[in-house]
Write a structure and sequence with these properties.
This protein is an alpha+beta fold. It contains 16 helices and 11 strands. Helix 12 runs antiparallel to helix 13 and helix 13 runs antiparallel to helix 14 (251-258). The chain is elongated, with a radius of gyration of 25 Å. It has helices at residues 2-14, 18-22, 25-36, 45-50, 57-70, 74-93, 99-110, 122-138, 142-173, 176-189, 199-211, 215-228, 233-245, 251-258, 331-372, 377-389; strands spanning 268-277, 284-292, 295-303, 315-316, 323-324, 326-330, 403-412, 414-420, 423-429, 433-441, 446-454. A 5-stranded mixed beta sheet has the order 6-7-1-10-11. Strands 2-3 form a two-stranded antiparallel sheet. The protein has one domain: Tetratricopeptide repeat domain (Serine Threonine Protein Phosphatase 5, Tetratricopeptide repeat, Alpha Horseshoe).
Length: 455
C-alpha cells in the first residue's frame, strides 16, 4: 500500500539517526555522565567512538573528545576533537544540497528533527577549539595551541556577524507563542544575551596568549571577556596589570576602577586555576496535542525547564592564603540562549512537519474510503504513527561543564598542595613561571591537570 511505502521511506531516511529517533539523547548519555563521575571516566569511549561514523558523528566526536579529556588522555581527545572539527568543515564546504541532505530534510518532515544530521550551535564549536587548544597546551605543543585559540576567536566574530544578519528573519518568524517561549528562556539565561559571546573562551584564549608571550593579544582577549562578563576580580586585575605593563592608555581608568596592579616579588611564581563544574542541563520536551481535519497531531518542542541557580564559589586551601574562585561564564546560560536563538527556525520546521503529516493522514484516509467505502484502521494507524514519531530534538553536547570559574595567586617558589572540597593536587611553583591548574568537577570527583610554563 502507498502509505506503508511512505512510512518505509520515512524510516529509511532516518538512517543512522534512529538512535535518537525514539530514545532521547539525554537518556543515551546518562551512563556516560555517570562514568565521568566515577573512578573509570574512560569506560564509555569505545561506545562513543563507534558512533563517530554515524549521521550524528560530529556530536559523538565532541562527546568522545571531552570524555578522553576529563580522563586525562589528551592525545586521544585531540584525535576525537579533530574528527569533530573536520565534520564542521565539511558542513562549511557543502555549497550544494547533497542527496543525503535532501533525504534528511524529507525525513524530518515525516518523522522529526532527529533525522537531520547534528550540527551544533556556534558556542559548541567555539568551545571545541578552546578545548583543543588546552589539549595542545597540556602536551606542550604550543604552536598548535595558538592556532586553536586564534580559530576560536575568529569563530566568535563570525557567529556574531551571522546572528546580526539573522535578526530580521527571526523577528519576521516570531508570533505570540514564540515570543512567550523566547521570553521565558531569556529569563532563565539571565544576563546572557547571545550564545556566541563566551567570556570563558575569551579568557582562556587570552590566558594562553599571555602564557606563550603574546601579551598584546592577551590584553585584547581579556578586555573582550570583561565586557561580556563584568565583575570578575581576577580578570579585572589581569586588565590592570597588562595595561600597566604595556603602557596602555586605559591603565589610569582601570586603576581607578579596579585598584592598582598586584605584582609578584622577585622569587614568586604564579598559580592560575581554571575550574569547570558540573554538566550543562539537558533539554526536555514539551508535547502539545491538537487536531487538524479531525485527526490527532502533536508538536514536540525542545526547551529547558526550571531555575538552575548559581553554583557557589570554591575555596582553595593549601596556598599562601585561602583563595576563592570567581565565575567567568555560565555555560548553562549559553546553551539556553542558543536554543532561544534557534527557536523561530525550529518552529518553522515544526509547522511544515505538522502540515505534511496532516496531508499524509488525509491521503491514507481517502484511499481507505475509496477501497472499502468505509473508514478502516489505516488512518488510525497513521494517527498513531504521527503521535509516536513526533519526538523533540534533545541533542546537545552534554559533557560540557555547567559553569567555569577562575582564580590566580602569586606565591613564593616551592611545592604546594591545592585542596578543593577535600580533593587535592600537588603543584610545583617556580620563580618567574606560571603553573596552570585545570580542575574538572564532575560531581563525585575533581580531576586536576597542571603544567608549568616559564614566562
Amino acid at each position: 500500500m502507498r502509505h506503508i511505502a511512505l512510512l518505509t521511506l520515512a524510516f529509511s531516511l532516518g538512517g543512522c539517526a534512529m538512535g535518537s529517533l525514539f530514545i532521547s539523547y539525554p537518556s543515551q548519555m546518562a551512563p556516560v555522565k555517570q562514568a565521568l563521575s566515577s573512578q573509570t571516566p574512560l569506560a564509555p569511549l569505545g561506545d562513543l567512538a563507534k558512533e563517530i561514523d554515524s549521521q550524528d558523528g560530529l556530536l559523538y566526536a565532541q562527546e568522545a573528545g571531552r570524555v578522553a579529556q576529563v580522563g586525562g588522555d589528551f592525545s586521544a581527545s585531540k584525535s576525537y576533537y579533530q574528527a569533530a572539527i573536520a565534520a564542521y568543515n565539511r558542513f562549511d564546504d557543502k555549497a550544494t544540497v547533497s542527496v543525503s541532505g535532501i533525504g534528511a530534510s524529507a525525513g524530518s518532515l515525516v518523522l522529526n528533527d532527529n533525522v537531520i544530521p547534528y550540527r551544533g550551535p556556534g558556542f559548541e564549536r567555539v568551545m571545541l577549539h578552546q578545548y583543543q587548544a588546552l589539549n595542545y597546551l597540556m602536551q606542550r605543543e604550543f604552536d598548535g595551541a595558538l592556532v586553536e585559540v586564534r580559530r576560536a576567536n575568529e569563530l566568535q566574530d563570525l557567529e556574531q556577524k551571522r546572528y546580526a544578519k539573522s535578526k530580521d528573519s527571526v523577528k519576521a518568524m516570531a508570533n505570540g507563542t514564540v515570543d512567550a517561549e523566547m521570553d521565558r528562556l531569556g529569563r532563565e539565561a539571565g544576563s546572557v544575551t547571545s550564545s556566541f559571546m563566551n567570556a570563558y573562551s575569551y579568557y582562556t584564549t587570552g590566558l594562553l596568549h599571555e602564557l606563550l608571550g603574546e601579551e598584546n593579544d592577551a590584553y585584547i582577549d581579556y578586555r573582550k571577556a570583561a565586557q561580556i562578563f563584568p565583575g570578575n576580580p581576577f580578570l579585572e586585575q589581569d586588565l590592570v596589570r597588562l595595561a600597566k605593563k604595556l603602557a596602555m592608555p586605559q591603565y589610569d581608568e582601570f586603576k581607578s576602577r579596579f585598584g592598582d596592579a598586584k605584582l609578584p616579588e622577585a622569587n614568586d611564581g604564579e598559580v592560575i586555576l581554571l575550574l569547570e563544574r558540573g554538566f550543562v542541563p539537558e533539554k526536555r520536551a514539551i508535547t502539545v496535542p491538537f487536531t487538524i481535519h479531525d485527526n490527532w497531531q502533536t508538536v514536540s518542542l525542545p526547551t529547558y525547564g526550571g531555575s538552575y541557580g548559581q553554583l557557589p564559589p570554591a575555596t582553595i586551601s593549601g596556598l599562601k592564603t585561602p583563595l576563592t574562585t570567581a565565575t567567568i561564564a555560565n555555560i548553562d546560560a549559553l546553551a539556553i540562549t542558543a536554543l532561544k536563538e534557534d527557536l523561530p527556525m525550529l518552529l518553522v520546521r515544526q509547522a511544515a512537519r505538522v502540515y505534511a503529516k496532516s496531508e499524509l493522514t488525509r491521503s491514507v484516509e481517502s484511499q481507505s474510503k475509496k477501497q472499502r467505502n468505509d473508514f478502516d484502521g489505516a488512518a488510525i494507524a497513521m494517527q498513531i504513527f504521527n503521535v509516536v514519531s513526533e519526538q523533540a530534538d534533545l541533542r546537545s553536547w552534554l559533557t560540557l561543564p555547567r559553569q567555569a570559574q577562575i582564580a590566580r595567586q602569586y606565591l613564593p617558589q616551592g611545592e604546594y598542595r591545592l585542596s578543593i572540597g577535600g580533593q587535592s593536587h600537588a603543584v610545583q611553583v617556580q620563580a618567574g613561571a606560571a603553573t596552570l591548574v585545570w580542575g574538572i568537577d564532575t560531581g563525585n570527583n575533581i580531576r586536576f591537570y597542571s603544567i608549568n610554563i616559564k614566562k
